[in-house]
Amino acid sequence: MFALLSFLLIAGSFRLQDVSAQTGSNTTVAVTTVAMTTGPGRQGGGGQAEGTVSTEVLGCTPTPRDVQGPYYLPGVKHQHVVCRGGPYLLVTGTVRDTRCSPVAKATLEVWQADPTGCYKINPQRPNFCRGKVRTDARGRYSFLTVMPGQYGSGWWHARPVHVHFRVSARRRRPLVTQLYFSGNASLGERDPCKFCGSDNPSQLTTPRPPSGAEENYTVGGTRYRVREVAEWDIVLN
Ligand SMILES: [Fe+2]
């Protein structure tokens, strides 16, 4: 009797894990809405039910983790202007969980190379090309920076242009990842970092011109002129 009960418990456990994996990947915004409203019945609703499945919008797939690299510094102060000098790139998006719910008060730590491809770890300038921002009640974040430069040359090919992120929120494991820019010649197989995800479509953004209110970004009473906007939504596991 005990053996039979143990078998049933173990079998049930495997079934739950299958369901978790199914709903945690390739889930769309539309599907998640169904799953949230159907509650325990999400085993069916999270997959192909209701005819609402879109295969085009991967809204709730966790953002892949990526290499942290050697230049992360903890303790950087909150600041919305990451790299100064312009021309300015506005990076903005929404942080969500795997049910597509916005994650409020998530902390985004950001660091990157300057336009010449240089990182600095200088005690006199600890916040050089680094920043920290929080999401609002709708999970929205934004910061201002400049387009990073590439680094590496000669026998060591240049890494593609990228920005490092460390995203943390209550009761969630921090996500360390990188954002890349479409069209860069060093993406994918040409990236000397063989453990990085620069060919992953969900880590790519295509900057566009600002529109309307995006043209100006005001921080602490100072108004900055925005040249480009890069949108990137992040999904925490
Ligand atoms: Fe880097």
From TrEMBL:
Residues 1-21 form the signal peptide. Residues 85-187 form the Intradiol ring-cleavage dioxygenases domain. Coiled coil: none annotated. GO terms for molecular function: ferric iron binding; oxidoreductase activity, acting on single donors with incorporation of molecular oxygen, incorporation of two atoms of oxygen. InterPro entries: Intradiol_dOase_C, Intradiol_dOase_core, Intradiol_RC_Dioxygenase. Keywords: Dioxygenase, Oxidoreductase, Signal. The keyword Signal applies. The keyword Signal applies. It comes from Branchiostoma belcheri (Amphioxus). This is Uncharacterized protein LOC109479422. Belongs to the intradiol ring-cleavage dioxygenase family.
